[in-house]
Design a protein that fits this description.
By secondary structure, the chain is mostly helical. The longest helix has 23 residues. Helix 2 links the parallel strand 1 and strand 2. It contains three helices and two strands. A two-stranded parallel sheet has the order 1-2.
């Protein structure tokens, strides 16, 4: 969970970023276009401080951000049974967001 800002969690973010950087480099070496986008977030689990930190993390990968953090904060009624699983309405909404974001990139 990105929003638990404990030292152990920040260490995990750094480790994950290192692994992501390796993957991005490998994909780019094969001429694959790479984009990044934030995970889905339940609106009542989010603060302005974590919004800023998460935005900085997303932009630190050196690849285009397909959609911003603000586009990934969803109402509780779009989730199934926990903050990690969208219900069918939420999944359809997210899919449409991704399609529109890709269209803006020329796809």
């Amino acid at each position: 969970d990105v929003f638990n800002l404990s030292k152990a969690n920040l260490d995990a973010v750094k480790r994950d970023k290192t692994e992501a950087a390796k993957l991005i480099k490998a994909l780019k070496s094969k001429n694959v276009k790479v984009y990044i986008m934030p995970q889905i977030l339940m609106e009542d689990k989010f603060t302005n401080e974590t919004f800023d930190i998460y935005n900085k993390i997303l932009h630190s990968y050196g690849v285009p951000v397909l959609m911003g953090v603000d586009d990934s904060i969803y109402a509780q009624n779009l989730f199934y049974d926990n903050p990690n699983h969208l219900n069918s309405k939420g999944a359809e909404y997210r899919s449409n967001q991704i399609i529109q974001a890709l269209k803006r990139q020329g796809y």
